[in-house]
Amino acid sequence: MDWIPVLNITGASMKYRHIIELLEEDVLYTSGSIASFAAELGLLPKEDLVKSRRRMRIALASYVTAHRFPDEGDGIVFVKGQSATPGWYGWRWKASMHL
């Protein structure tokens, strides 16, 4: 039997667990849309909101890669003025954190 490494990602991604818990299960999210969602709810530090959103977006994008979310996403998210981006349903984000 081959040894398979188990990814135990903690740190920044776990810092946002309370936000992932609030996601709707049947809505597509990208790391950026989750950061926007958190900002709208006032869940990010207000001192430097732009920097906080950027950090969250980068941490969640790394999380997606580390947890091997499908590259093509569960669907495509369209944001005005940006290119189409793969997104994943809220249930996938929650399941990856074992919520």
Give an account of the 3D structure:
The longest helix has 18 residues. The N terminus is likely disordered. Helices cover 43% and strands 10% of the residues. With 99 residues, the chain is mainly α. The chain has one domain. A three-stranded antiparallel beta sheet has the order 1-3-2. Helix 3 packs antiparallel against helix 4.
Q: Structural class of the helix and strand makeup? A: mainly alpha
Q: Assess the beta-strand content as a share of residues.
A: 5-15%
| Major sheet summary line | 3 strands, antiparallel
Rg: 14 Å
Could you tell me the mean pLDDT? 85
How many distinct folded domains? 1
**Straight-line distance between termini:** 30 Å
Number of strands: 3
Low-confidence stretches: 1-9
**What form results from the Cα inertia axes?**
globular
Helix content: 40-55%
Order of helices and strands: HHEHHEEH
